[in-house]
Amino acid sequence: xxxxxxxxxxxxxxxxxxxxxxxxxxxxxxxxxxxxxxxxxxxxxxxxxxxxxxxxxxxxxxxxxxxxxxxxxxxxxxxxxxxxxxxxxxxxxxxxxxxxxxxxxxxxxxxxxxxxxxxxxxxxxxxxxxxxxxxxxxxxxxxxxxxxxxxxxxxxxxxxxxxxxxxxxxxxxxxxxxxxxxxxxxxxxxxxxxxxxxxxxxxxxxxxxxxxxxxxxxxxxxxxxxxxxxxxxxxxxxxxxxxxxxxxxxxxxxxxxxxxxxxxxxxxxxxxxxxxxxxxxxxxxxxxxxxxxxxxxxxxxxxxxxxxxxxxxxxxxxxxxxxxxxxxxxxxxxxxxxxxxxxxxxxxxxxxxxxxxxxxxxxxxxxxxxxxxxxxxxxxxxxxxxxxxxxxxxxxxxxxxxxxxxxxxxxxxxxxxxxxxxxxxxxxxxxxxxxxxxxxxxxxxxxxxxxxxxxxxxxxxxxxxxxxxxxx
Length: 472
Hints:
With 472 residues, the chain is mainly α. 67% of the residues lie in helices and 7% in strands. It has helices at 3-100, 104-152, 172-178, 183-192, 212-228, 233-261, 269-277, 288-306, 310-319, 334-344, 349-356, 367-381, 390-405, 433-450; strands at residues 164-167, 195-197, 204-208, 282-283, 286-287, 410-416, 421-426, 458-463. Helix 6 (233-261) runs parallel beside helix 8 (288-306), helix 8 packs antiparallel against helix 9 (310-319) and helix 10 (334-344) packs antiparallel against helix 11 (349-356). The protein is elongated and about 190 Å long.
């Protein structure tokens, strides 16, 4: 009876132990299952996300395909439109060419010509504006300088001298001058080289010669013969020799006085003597030696105003016409002859260049040369400085009018103010405003090239448009 309870206990314990183990196994299995499920859940979410992305990509690809189809369709429509426009343009060009009677190349050439003409007009306008501004500034400065110099320069009036007149005490001396059978007058003319004119002018005889120095020597000779009273061939020859020596002394003295007047003391003696001969020469009625003195003084004043070397400018202006003393003896223009003479006697090259360039026979390269030109113009162009013959004056006026009338579009020309102002009337339908400016410039340049004149000549082109209607 004692053995049965023990067996029952062992069986329950075993059962209990077995149930406990089963529960543990189930719990472990459940935990493993839950763990595995947790691990598998993210993988499914990822797969679902990938599927959604794939579907989204497929939808986008579909939309892109549809868009490409629309673009292809639009491209084809655009190409058709371009072809239609090209065809329409070709038709338009053909219609225009048919209406205008011009081909495309001809029309293009017309357009190019129009553009070129417009460009030229614009260039002329621009150049005119630039020139006008420069001229205004330069003219204002030049006027101030010249006005200052002219105010400080005072010169006397000059008159033309073409012959020398010798006054006689009585008309009886005319017979003694002529001599027996005219031997005295023939000897006088042969020795002096001067024509002696004896006419009905009371108590006077006239000496005529192209060389003013020779004429002056003859005047001195005749006056001394009249004072001495002995007039015969041998006496004429002796007195002529003495007059030649006296003329040499007078020329040297005149040259020295003129050089001292402008402040020059180191000239070569030959240059001084040559300058003195210009005391007896005139140019358009103006004494050449006085002209040189005035030019030297004006050049000095101008040099002071603009701040350049005064001594060189004065020297160049004072010597610029020295060649006129030798033009009767040496071939060539007085500017080049004077330059050679100055170079021969050791003058500085700047002075030589100013002499040879003062009439633009050589292009001026220095300020001294330009100032010499300005001083020459100031002395020669001032009122009362020069005179000219009526024939030369009238010829210049006619030539001015002929130059202007030779240009197309010119209807009338009027030379005014003694030829210093030329008024040109043009046809308004043939010459426009820009053409009028170009015409004025062309006429002025032609006048500069073809005419010789003192001072300046102003050319004014007048273009007038008139509208006329009659009321009835």
